[in-house]
Amino acid sequence: MAFDIREEDEERHNDEFDEYEDVKQPARPKFYRRRKFWIICIPNLIIAIVVAVVLALYVIMPKIAQGLMNKASINLSQIVS
Which chain regions cross the lipid bilayer (predicted)? Predict the structure, then answer.
């Protein structure tokens, strides 16, 4: 009769955790309900808004203004007599 410790340990180990098999884990909240999501999302949103405003002021608006100036015409009929 050979005595094997591994078999006894496996049986005891399985018996110890059988009571926890039926315990249901609480459902994790959806990703947008977690605090970590908002800690990451809000600074990224602020950075995106700042970049959009800067692009609008220094890139888009001057190009629109220059396009309007290029299409404009000056009428000098009253100066020349």
Answer: 37-61
Over the chain, what is the mean pLDDT? Answer: 79
How many structural domains does the chain have?
1
State yes or no: pLDDT of 68 exceeds 90: yes
Residue 23 is assigned to a structural domain of this protein: no
pLDDT for 74: 85
CA angle 39/42/46 to nearest 5° reads: 145
> Over the stretch 7-41, which tens digit does the pLDDT of each residue have?
655 555 555 556 666 667 778 888 777 888 889 99
Taking every pair of Cα atoms in the chain, the longest distance, rounded to a whole number of angstroms, is: 129
> Rounded distance, CA 69 to CA 67, Å?
5
